[in-house]
């Protein structure tokens, strides 16, 4: 047993066989001798056939479980694995260039993925990750043991949010050598209820494929070859989380109200149908943050109105009559699609530089959100002028359609300081503690090992924002990860926050925590902490 310390990025404990992702990426492949190339190409083709057959089995399993939509998606992987063009690419790489079968499979999949990702149809562009996954799966078969990502704990150097979303349904937990707790890959892991540890360092990549490993997302540690006691604790934890989820589902209709009667609305951070369904099962009262940009991370140009509606509508159509808070594209940072590579701006500043793209986006969101209680949320606001500009463009595109509510994300120090003026232009405010914490304290969001929202410098700004919203008689919510953190939650509630928006998988747990709290006590605790920053909290609207 050997413990590798890292940082907790998503709670829970998972144990299973290690699936080391792309360990070989970038290594120098041995050249296959000419005489052996035909045999090597046969091995590669055979691996593709076996990957296709895995996927077929998985698809029929999903169908038996009544998960027809998921089965359809998996079946496209079967077609990809049998695609003559992919096979021809693998042959060329092995026969002409002498590349080893496993590398040829990954490389051919990468080439196909790159071609797909330049297609204008965003749904096809999203398939790029599926081809990569087929390549990895086939390459894994060459190791002689049928390596099923579905059964493993994923070990990688780093992952993007799209990678996690792609792999999550098939892994039990994730450990990264690099990565940060507020990076979007970690947010996706939390939203899907996957334990995750990041920042473990290079030692993590020494883990062998198939070795038993334990990812402890509560303590931020990875354990190689855990002893029986530890492995059994992990299984108990998985069981505990499963039963907590069942309790949350059973209590989904009970309101989230503190013991002394303070009512809080708990909404979900959800961008996909899968997340929305999970959030609804756990009693979410709508969506408080739909991160639209996550759905277009592979886009090669600004998506058209029609493309956006086709991607957003499947989620928003399920929110008829319910709060649907759609955040405008928050591109930039670790959410920069290929067509925006190199930009330094982030969030609404990117869109305000592209008035036509902003118009198409606003119009698509309004169309896709018809029937829902639609709220538009503006990311990375720095001044009230940002909101005025968005409202001006919105007026141009509405053409008789009902006006949605407009709110600002308060997640930059500039916005928190101008919260009063911004609140005057808004129908609601939403505090993004992830960016706010990192920006106020000068941390690097992608690498940061902590998100200390209770630091008095951050908390003072959160309190001032809640006050500014309430003075303007508009509701204030918190949609950053701090809203689902057991330590920060009582303080955030004590400040008088009206709504929380949390990862889909956390909705039930947060609702339960609210029921166990005493608001008067929360208020006392938040005031004591605020005393250190010179702020005081006041009444809600
Ligand atoms: C935040 O910054 O707290 C937030 C919710 O936005 P995101 O995590 O998507 O940047
Ligand atoms: Mg943010």
List keywords for this structure.
541 residues, alpha/beta, eight-stranded mixed beta sheet, eight-stranded parallel barrel, 16 strands, 46% helix, 15% strand, globular, binds phosphoenolpyruvate
Give a written overview of the molecule.
Helix 1 packs antiparallel against helix 3 and helix 2 packs across helix 5. 46% of the residues lie in helices and 15% in strands. The chain has 541 residues and is α/β, with parallel strands linked by helices. Bound molecules: phosphoenolpyruvate and magnesium ion (MG). Phosphoenolpyruvate binds next to strand 10 and helix 16.
Which ions and ligands are bound to the chains?
phosphoenolpyruvate, magnesium ion
Give the proportion of residues in helices. 40-55%
How many E-type strands? Answer: 16
Our estimate of the beta-strand percent is 5-15%
The main β sheet shows up as: 8 strands, mixed
The chain-level mean pLDDT equals: 87
Low-confidence stretches: none
Strand order of the largest sheet: 1-8-7-3-4-5-6-2
* Rg for CA atoms: 24 Å
Distance from N terminus to C terminus (CA atoms, Å) equals 54 Å
Query: Pairing-aware structural class of the strands and helices?
Result: alpha/beta
Can you count the helices?
20
Q: Give the overall shape.
A: globular
